Amino acid sequence: MSRWAGWACLITCSCIMPKATIPMQYDTLARSRSNHVLVMLPGRHSRGSDFKRYGFGDHAVCNLIAADAHFGYYRNQSVLERLHDDVISNLNKPIMVGGISMGGLGAAMYALTYPDDVSGLLLMAPFLADEKLVNRIEAQGLDVRNDDSSLIKRQLQVWQYLLETEKPLVVGCGESDEFAPAIRLLQNMKPDATYIWVPGGHDWPTWQEIWAQYLAQP
Questions:
Q1: pTM of the predicted model, to two decimals?
Q2: How many structural domains does the chain have?
């Protein structure tokens, strides 16, 4: 899928990479009488099973699905297709899609590619841009240059989608997270979204606190 060309290069590959299987596996961590469905995508060094390990299903008040959308799917550029065909298509709508770190990027990319599938986004410490692109957006906005690579153009499309979407958007981040500058820029540009800031960095204890505060919202 050419739309993903270059994205995997932004996300450093670990030495041991799980294989992207067909179909993509997923697990139901919590069930609810409500029709609210939330599909969560793991980060770069995580698997879908880590959401259960860190207690995300313990107090969920929605139908919570953990998709095993690990780095292998990003590496072979199939994550959007497999998520759509193997997971989302089997669920009742409306569906909110969320993710942590790399999974936050994947969730935003999915919403951009399949907008009719997604009722809202929950992004925890998402990777949205490196420092160079953050500085450029801050100084010049989202204008595309003639010499921009396809990768840069796609990143700017993600930002444009997040800024323009009228669907619920919740973004959480640790105050000392390496991705915090991009989140703060997004907050300045789109203040009407919901932002959850907690002490901490780019780790599971921080994401657990973001999750707890998300569940505590009215």
A1: 0.89
A2: 1
